[in-house]
Amino acid sequence: MLSSTLGAGLVGAVSPFKLLAASDSLLTPGKIQSLSQSFDGTLITPGMESYDGARRTFSYNPRFDKFPSLIAVCASESDVARAMVFARENELPIAVRSGGHDALAASTCDGGLLIDLQRLNNFGLGGERVVVGPGLRAGQVDYELSSAGRALPLVCNPSVGIGGLTLGGGLGWFVASQGAACDALRSARVVTVDGRSVTANRDENADLFWALKGGGGNFGIVTEFEFDTFTKPNVIAGVIVYEAKLLKEFLAFYQEFMTNAPDELTVELVVNDGETPAIAAMVYYSGEESEAEAVLAPLRAFGPVLADGIRKQEYGRTGALAPDVAPYFQTPDVILENEPRESGLYWQGISISSLTERAIDALDDAIRVAPVGWSLGLGHVMRGAVTRVDQDSSPLIRPEGLTTLQFSIGWAHRSQAAARMQWVDNAIASLQADADPNNYINYMSSGSPAEVATAYGENFNRLARIKRRYDPDNVLSGNRNIVAG
């Protein structure tokens, strides 16, 4: 994947040393030294060799290239509490990072304290419950659970951090058969903004527990999650590929196919530029193996099929692409002579109510005018088990048929960035007529308080009351922020 290195070049380069000085000189070397004496992890400041790598995120949005004044790589829950208190005492903005996937780069900040949780990566399985740290990635948890014969309803991308995906809801391969990641959450350890460590579950701090199941990082910093697991399923998975010129016909077929598909089947789409622009349908079937052929027959009948990599695989180890499929995921670069390489990637998401004819036309039109290097992702269709959960069980709004879309594009040189980013913005704008107001929080490309409030619908007022109780000063504002008013 291309790295987002363009950053501040699009918005005006800012020296991290200037940002350090911009914090009203409150963050002195002496204060940092004092924190380090009681800190188990690592403190990173501008000027250190590790700073540039440590500050970067997987935000996929070069407009948000940020320079924190201090990065606290926490090794324990007590580190998180110390960092929280230190930030408040020194009036520093706070950002929290688990995995760092975020179109808003909310997991970092300018001139403040970045609390990095990636070293909180503990894993402990006892019976049907698993306890994990927020720094673990979804793929790591899948792999470990698979070895023990268990599973969790996590996301499709194995590099996403457990913390952000769960707090935002967590839609993935098991959305229709098991629900969302937040539905499997049974308890959490939380550091509150006043530095206390508390347990949140149905019996202790029940209001906080409810808010954590989809309300984002607005209420405290979660240092440990406890989930219910389920028996590891048999998996028929892989990618089947069609020509991109069939997009309109395939999307109409896909809408009907998924409406009638069994809960055990999830199909996510990636439509990619390349030598042969292609539709890659990523298939994940966790039902009876004897029924797989009949379930997948309509997909295989749509065509012509360019490649078919669907096969029996083991849960937790399904990331490898079949050799004849892999080339369709390789997007091209346009290399310019006499211009230095400075690659980047831009990603934006949106939720739509359904794949209407108008939405399909907009998607097709966007691809027809796309610059080299484009990609469209589509999936997380809200259906099955996730819609049958008690609507009051979490803040996650669950409208039947809600579908998430993501446009992304890469480049090899800085001079290519502006036009390509504009294409993504235009493509997102073209879908506004079909946008669902109950936008899936983890895919929102806007941090507008009004849009956040709308996304949570009737649950927003309850979330705002809980926000006022646990974070009345909005210390944790670097997120899809719930402004309590």
What would you note in describing this structure?
Strands 12, 13, 14, 15, 16, 17, 18 and 19 form an 8-stranded antiparallel sheet that branches. The protein has a 5-stranded antiparallel sheet with strand order 5-6-10-8-9. Strand 13 and strand 14 form a beta hairpin. The radius of gyration is 22 Å and the shape is globular. It has 485 residues and is of the alpha+beta class. It is built from 14 helices and 19 strands.
Shape: globular
Helix content: 25-40%
Whole-number average pLDDT? Answer: 91
Biggest sheet statistics: 8 strands, antiparallel
- Counting helices, strands and paired strands, the structural category is alpha+beta
Number of strands: 19
Distance between the termini: 40 Å
| Radius of gyration based on Cα positions | 22 Å
Tell me the number of helical segments per DSSP (H or I, 4 or more residues long): 14
Weakly predicted, low-confidence segments: 1-25
Beta percentage is: 15-25%
